[in-house]
Amino acid sequence: MISVNEAKNSIYLNATRLPPVVLDLKDAAGKVLAAALVASENIPAFPQSAMDGYAFAYEDTNGAALTIMTTIQAGSGKELLLQPGQAARIFTGAAVPEGADTVVMQEKAKVQENRLSIEDPLLKPGANVRPPGSEIQSGQPALDKGTLLTPAAIGFLAAIGFQEVPVYPDPVVSIIITGKELRPPGQPLTYGQVYESNSYALKAALSKAGITKVEVLFADDTLDQVTELLQDALEKSNLVLLTGGVSVGDFDFVPEAAKACSVNTLFHKIKQRPGKPLFFGKKESRLVFGLPGNPASALTCFYEYVLPAISGQTGRPLSLQSVRVPAKERISKAHPLTHFLKGYYDGNTALSLDAQESYRLRSFATANCLIVLDEDQYEFEEGALVEVHLLPS
Ligand SMILES: Nc1nc2c(c(=O)[nH]1)N[C@H]1C(S)=C(S)[C@@H](COP(=O)(O)OP(=O)(O)OC[C@H]3O[C@@H](n4cnc5c(N)ncnc54)[C@H](O)[C@@H]3O)O[C@H]1N2
Ligand code: MOO
């Protein structure tokens, strides 16, 4: 068995970026740039008015009124040349005509019968004019490789003329649910059956992370069927999540099926609770997680290991945020395993909730964090600092 840190390190080393794709800018929000972008034009492309007002040459403002020759609306394609003594009515965003270099806002000007008097003692040459290329110049770096495309970054790229961008795609995910005892919710249970919940929780967690290309497959607990579905999943996905069948029971076929599909085992079993039997393997660049069947174990492993793996594939910052906060009440544990406890963080302290058993999701359903207790520490007094991983809301 390896430690939590060793497991996380293995994921960090093995979950490498997926081959880049070019996406329409509209579809690229939340993705990460796979190459540096360079501006191909000056933006603004022309001297641009920053105010509704009047454009003129600053050196003409010697007290004499100017003659307003024309009106220039934003988007007007008219190219004009103002002569000395002339001004143009202009609006925010419009091109400042040749012969003009300054704009006075209309609140600081008076117009009488087409004659403009400027009443702005603080006006400077070039005031209220955005120079061409002042946002970015042709040939200048726009955004670096590895930049997360936030709404502002998407807007910026649109504003400087990019219509499509190279990004790391999200993985295509296959979920294989194993277990003969499982029935979909909504159907009556016969003796020995349990409702299937892992596909629901995992799909919801993937969707929360923006991952939508997800297929769910169901396997009985036979080596042949698990192997067949895994083989199929490996052909069409970048990430395969199996649940159940990773422990030591006679019907736990996931590690064997992985071997049969030439998946290289990177680790199996971690010194942790829940989720001790977690399996991680790789075939070429495809990643395979065998998540323990117990619902709280599967979801905890998803948050702690699968999300960082998707971060590795996409460059997106998906791993849970970590903070150190005081424990609200004393916490103790008996085993030399890292514990991930369902907790509630109220902004000041973290409380360990009831119902921590890995077959239960009841406390997980209201938890907003996982409290992480080190492998080799057993007692945490009230007020002691504990590591808390914040769950996506
Ligand atoms: N002798 C040992 N037995 C077990 C050990 C061990 O070390 N020695 N480890 C235990 C731990 S810890 C875990 S976790 C489980 C993991 O077992 P599997 O991954 O093989 O999972 P299953 O046996 O298939 O199922 C466990 C449990 O979870 C329920 N389950 C499974 N899939 C779903 C699903 N999709 N939705 C809802 N519930 C599901 C299943 O019915 C079982 O109750 O092994 C322990 N045993
Ligand atoms: O690891 Mo199991 O997940 O403790 O029940």
Automatic annotation (TrEMBL):
One of its GO terms (cellular component) is cytosol. Residues 122-141 are annotated as: Disordered. GO terms for biological process: Mo-molybdopterin cofactor biosynthetic process. This is Molybdopterin molybdenumtransferase. SUPFAM superfamilies: MoeA C-terminal domain-like (SSF63867), MoeA N-terminal region -like (SSF63882), Molybdenum cofactor biosynthesis proteins (SSF53218). It catalyses: adenylyl-molybdopterin + molybdate = Mo-molybdopterin + AMP + H(+). Its cofactor is Mg(2+). The keyword Magnesium applies. GO terms for molecular function: metal ion binding; molybdopterin molybdotransferase activity. Catalyzes the insertion of molybdate into adenylated molybdopterin with the concomitant release of AMP. Its EC number is 2.10.1.1. Belongs to the MoeA family. The keyword Transmembrane does not apply.
